[in-house]
């Protein structure tokens, strides 16, 4: 049986720089007028032999991490705004959508990580989310069916009681229909 390779944390020469030098490299990377050559030359002048390729790989990793953080922050802010605007809404759907989005993004951007990504676990998470969605939809449909049955029974009883006044019966039926539509709407 082959030995399973363990995923190790990436560490580059830039990561090993003193904090103040690394911070300066990060600042230089945010300025698009600085090329990787310029940063490499600046580091060499400071006594650190780091190639332009190493600077470039570090920039790609740090930009990717920053982008993921910004996207997560944006999604969280959007969810918080939805919660503020709709305090009575069902947030399980939004939470499941965020989780599914994260899983799909992880699969889509895994590239060389596929060798180490436990796909069976990701598959189980996706299946679990799908089961949760099916269960939620089933509960919602059951509630609609029960509400429909209750309104029909209530309508029948009320109609028996007010049969003597057809105009009142028509108005009441209209009110019940509107109430049922409001209760069963997805809003």
TrEMBL record:
InterPro entries documented for this protein: Phage_Mu_Gp27 (IPR021874)
Protein source organism: Hungatella hominis
Source organism, top-level taxon: Bacteria
Pfam family, one: Phage_Mu_Gp27
Name of this protein: DUF3486 family protein
């Amino acid at each position: 049986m082959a030995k399973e390779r363990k995923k190790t944390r990436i560490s580059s020469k830039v990561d090993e720089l003193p904090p103040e030098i690394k911070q300066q490299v990060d600042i230089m990377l945010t300025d698009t007028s600085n090329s990787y050559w310029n940063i490499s030359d600046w580091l060499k002048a400071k006594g650190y032999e780091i190639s332009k390729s190493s600077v470039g790989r570090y920039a790609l990793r740090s930009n990717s991490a920053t982008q993921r953080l910004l996207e997560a922050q944006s999604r969280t802010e959007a969810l918080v705004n939805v919660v503020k605007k709709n305090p009575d809404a069902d947030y399980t759907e939004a939470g499941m959508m965020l989780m599914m989005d994260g899983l799909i993004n992880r699969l889509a951007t895994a590239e060389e990580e596929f060798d180490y990504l436990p796909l069976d676990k990701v598959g189980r998470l996706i299946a679990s989310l799908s089961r949760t969605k099916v269960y939620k939809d089933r509960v919602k449909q059951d509630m609609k069916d029960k509400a429909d049955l209750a309104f029909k029974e209530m309508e029948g009883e009320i109609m028996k009681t007010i049969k003597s006044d057809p105009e009142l019966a028509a108005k009441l039926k209209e009110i019940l229909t509107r109430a049922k539509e409001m209760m069963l709407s997805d809003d």
